[in-house]
Write a structure and sequence with these properties.
The chain is of the alpha/beta class and about 400 residues long. The chain has helices spanning about 20-30, 55-60, 90-105, 120-130, 145, 155-165, 175-180, 205-215, 240-245, 265-270, 290-295, 310-320, 330-335, 350-360, 365-370, 380-385; strands spanning about 1-5, 35-40, 45, 65-70, 70-75, 75-80, 110-115, 135-140, 165-170, 190, 225-230, 255, 280-285, 300, 325, 340-345. About 45% of the residues are buried.
Length: about 400
């Protein structure tokens, strides 16, 4: 079975943490018997002079084809208009992918097209599949449905891809329900939970984790209670709500892992609230270091406006750290007992109450990790994707 996967969310040398969960899922699927996988990870580069920005210059310099952790990855370029051109991305991605798909299909016939994100990958896969008279599948992960299925420009493209897809995947039961509510055919949708490396994301030495954090911060917070958020510094992730909650959490330290457009605003909010000395911006934290951050924290707090089923939620619990999360996406599928954490309203006071409750209760890391059961294994994820 030869499958061509289109994945605009996929790591590269300029963004090694970008879409790691997509890469791992495809790697596990490719390891299944009888599966041949060709991956096309289109790279968006804006026109000159925006292309001179260091971020885009690094992307433009990427090889057009390479071996990545045993996978053959093609990286065609497509024109990108930052912030304002997302509505054009499906057509641009399809135009970049189609010549590669035609060549690969001529060499070894392709049996189907796989879209790893519903927008722009899904509509792009629809066009490529139609050109080659092949079936395609598409996976919904979160904002690709919560945002684009309601966007005046994106909604028709998302709906067309959903209608044309042979089958679809959703990262949670809640995501599937959202898709059905948007008019998708529920009989074509299968829930496909993410995987997690339980050898790395597992309970560990808290003292060593605090030492790692001290080295990262350049200061030691001792045994002070610590909460953490992992994710892009953007409004949807809700870090502003957590900073506001600190007023009701005296002595609690807050570490933010990630980067993004809201960083300056978040720093200003912390300063204005008088909590700047307790708010720590870690920048991007590599996947290899995330277990240390989770183990150092008393709770991982992520009041997102929307999610499918966030990998950081699963990773934190696997490391034995309870979560305080909003009722978004698959939150209630993950937090099914108080050992795993709390699902709360997106309100600073509610967040503060839940954090105080979790810290006061004290967590048994092994008991927290045990709440995951065996739902989130990469082996299962890969087998289910290959079967799908």
């Amino acid at each position: 079975m030869h499958i061509l996967s289109i994945a605009t969310l996929f790591p590269d040398d300029s963004r090694p943490n970008f879409g790691l969960f997509v890469e791992r899922s495809l790697r596990e699927a490719a390891a299944q018997p009888g599966v041949r996988l060709s991956i096309v990870a289109p790279v968006g580069v804006p026109p000159w002079p925006l292309s001179l920005h260091p971020r885009y210059r690094a992307r433009a310099a990427l090889p057009v084809m390479q071996q990545w952790n045993g996978l053959t990855v093609h990286r065609p370029r497509f024109p990108l208009i930052p912030r304002f051109g997302a509505r054009f991305n499906p057509a641009m991605v399809a135009r970049a992918v189609l010549p590669i798909a035609r060549r690969l299909h001529a060499e070894t016939p392709i049996d189907g097209i796989d879209a790893q994100f519903f927008f722009p990958d899904g509509p792009a896969a629809m066009h490529v599949a139609a050109a080659l008279t092949l079936p395609f599948i598409a996976k919904a992960r979160g904002a690709d449905i919560s945002h684009w299925a309601d966007d005046p420009m994106g909604a028709p493209r998302v709906a067309a891809a959903a209608s044309a897809a042979a089958r679809m995947l959703a990262v949670s039961e809640a995501m599937k329900a959202d898709m059905v509510a948007a008019g998708f055919d529920g009989s074509k949708i299968q829930v496909h939970y993410t995987g997690i490396d339980r050898d790395r994301f597992c309970p560990g030495d808290r003292r060593a984790a605090r030492a790692w954090l001290a080295a990262r911060l350049g200061r030691d917070i001792g045994d002070a209670p610590l909460i953490a958020t992992v994710g892009a510094l953007i409004a949807r992730k809700g870090q502003r709500l957590v900073i506001d909650a600190l007023a009701g959490l005296p002595g609690v330290q807050y570490a933010l892992a990630g980067s993004g457009e809201d960083e300056a605003m978040l720093r200003m909010c912390a300063g204005d609230a008088g909590t700047g000395d307790r708010v720590h911006f870690l920048g991007s934290v590599g996947n290899a270091d995330l277990p240390m951050l989770y183990r150092a924290a008393d709770a991982v707090v992520m009041p997102s406006a929307s999610e499918g089923l966030a990998n950081a939620w699963v990773e934190a619990i696997a490391c034995g750290t309870p979560v305080v999360i909003s009722d978004a996406g698959g939150a209630r599928e993950l937090v099914q007992s108080e050992a795993a954490g709390r699902v709360v309203a997106r309100d600073p006071r509610a967040i503060a109450v839940a954090v105080r409750d979790v810290i006061a209760a004290g967590a048994d890391p092994d008991a927290v990790a045990a709440t995951l059961g065996d739902r989130f294994s990469w082996d299962r994820n890969g087998r289910e994707l290959a079967a799908h």
